[in-house]
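sorry for the late reply, my laptop died twice this morning and i had to redo everyting from scratch. anyway the thing you sent over, i finally got around to it. pasting the sequence first so we're on the same page, its 274 residues, then the predicted structure underneath. double check i copied it right bc i was rushing
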Amino acid sequence: MNFVTLNNGLKMPQLGFGVWQVENDQATAAVSKAIETGYTSIDTAMIYQNEEGVGKALKETSVPREELFITTKVWNSDQGYENTLRAFDESLERLGLEYVDLYLIHWPTPEFDEYVDTYKALEKLYNDGKVKAIGVCNFEIEHLERLLKECDVKPVLNQVECHPHLAQNELKEFCEKHDIFVEAWSPLEQGGEVLQNEVVTKIAEAHGKSPAQVILRWHLQNNTIVIPKSVTPSRIEENFNVFDFELSAEEMKQIDGLNKDRRKGPHPNEMNVR
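ok and here's the structure:
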């Protein structure tokens, strides 16, 4: 496993396991398999409605709590200072934990303009020792600039949609400048056409790897944190098996050239659902 050091000194696995769109009753088996495979970073959220299933797997594992890195998120309808503090306590109870390693704002929902107050609640949780680190998801540069100006604790990371068809180069450059990691959700474009791309399939063939493994390796070598999701045991193992090969500079350049700035999910400025 590769580890990155966040801007507050906390170490985080660069490869984690996501459980978006995993049913609560499937989450326990999926997370248990992931931990058995070697993942120690698990990423969930209140809106996924599987925190209890994740928590059950965490309770059953023999891996010590301090060796696990657990992330969850505050949903749009729970934004605002007091609402966020309450939502965090509820997530903690569902997970069956005394603290989480990383707590994130799920979307900025700029139409409601509560993300600064929400982030100040995250700062309180951080200062009170209930979370080891705080950050955001789906924040554009303008949203990050407001946090940096109006809040005290710098986000450790920004979790955004990122894959070869949406490389997020401008956002990555801004985040790197401010010592904020980028974490990729939908790193494989939700199993999209990028997995069939000729450039990717040729590189995969050359390394004796799958297209998914090549793309995950591309993320890792771009210094991006990545959280692929699967409920299939063989795929969970395959996604983890990405540390025994390396892409050349030319191969990285070829994959970089696939960028179309094309999203599968909504644009953050338009995602104001509650």
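The two ends are 37 Å apart (CA to CA).
thats about all i looked at so far, will dig more tmrw
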